[in-house]
Automatic annotation (TrEMBL):
Protein name per UniProt: TerB family tellurite resistance protein
Domain Co-chaperone DjlA N-terminal: 102-222
A Pfam family assignment: TerB
Highest rank taxon of the organism: Bacteria
Length: 231
């Protein structure tokens, strides 16, 4: 049999004659974290219609495809769930707000009158991204929380504090590795321990932090005990 005359030779020829082509229609755009580029990029959300082609000319519809997310940089296509991952900028803001909320919750549980607790909290909050945070600002915010009965119900460790913590931590937890979630809990533990052993209210707040971060109860207990040990 001559080369190119058998079955193996017919497939490439058929592929040149018959094929499919997708016509993409933009549905929207924005910024996302591109898994292929490994950073924040612009994207287009596309919906496609596939057609059979004959000699490169579209002839018959073959149905819809997508929607997909196309990176404007690498042109790779991803499923719509790629937009669920926060951008680097958004992730940094979520992490900053989480540490700030945990610090306020722990202080509201009994540490707002302690200068050492306020100093420890301010250091943590500044490191998380609020570079101009001061002890006095934190003390004023805790006082405002205590007076806002619509948000802090029943005093320290109440339902209002739990809601605040879940609002800040629930969206962040799925995007953090276990070590990152543990780090946030340990920040809260260090603030609580800055003025002495844990109080029951502080333990209650830290347990809520662990729950919101989806940490098992045994891990929360282990981490809180480890934080008490001298470094």
């Amino acid at each position: 049999m001559l080369p190119g005359r058998g079955h193996n030779g017919r497939a490439p020829r058929l592929a040149r004659i018959l094929g499919t082509r997708t016509a993409w229609t933009p549905l929207g755009d924005g910024e996302f974290f591109c898994p292929n580029c490994g950073g924040d990029r612009n994207y287009q959300r596309l919906s496609g219609r596939r057609r059979f082609t004959l000699l490169g000319v579209p002839v018959l519809p073959r149905g819809e495809t997508g929607p997909v997310v196309e990176c404007a940089s690498c042109r790779r296509h991803f499923g719509p769930d790629a937009l669920d991952h926060p951008t680097t900028t958004r992730f940094s803001a979520m992490l900053r707000d989480a540490v700030h909320t945990v610090a306020l919750a722990v202080l509201a549980a009994g540490g707002a009158s302690s200068r050492s607790a306020l100093e420890t909290a301010a250091v943590a909050v500044r490191a998380a991204g609020f570079g101009d945070c001061t002890e006095d600002q934190l003390a004023a915010l805790v006082e405002a929380l205590a007076q806002d009965t619509g948000r802090v119900l029943g005093g320290p460790g109440g339902a209002g504090l739990a809601i605040e913590l879940h609002e800040a931590l629930d969206p962040l937890a799925p995007h953090l590795a276990p070590v990152g979630r543990e780090s946030i809990l340990l920040e809260g533990a260090r603030i609580a321990l800055a003025d002495g052993p844990y109080t029951p209210a502080e333990r209650e707040v830290l347990a809520t932090v662990g729950t919101a971060l989806t940490l098992p109860a045994d891990d929360v207990t282990r981490l809180l005990e480890a934080a008490r040990m001298p470094s």
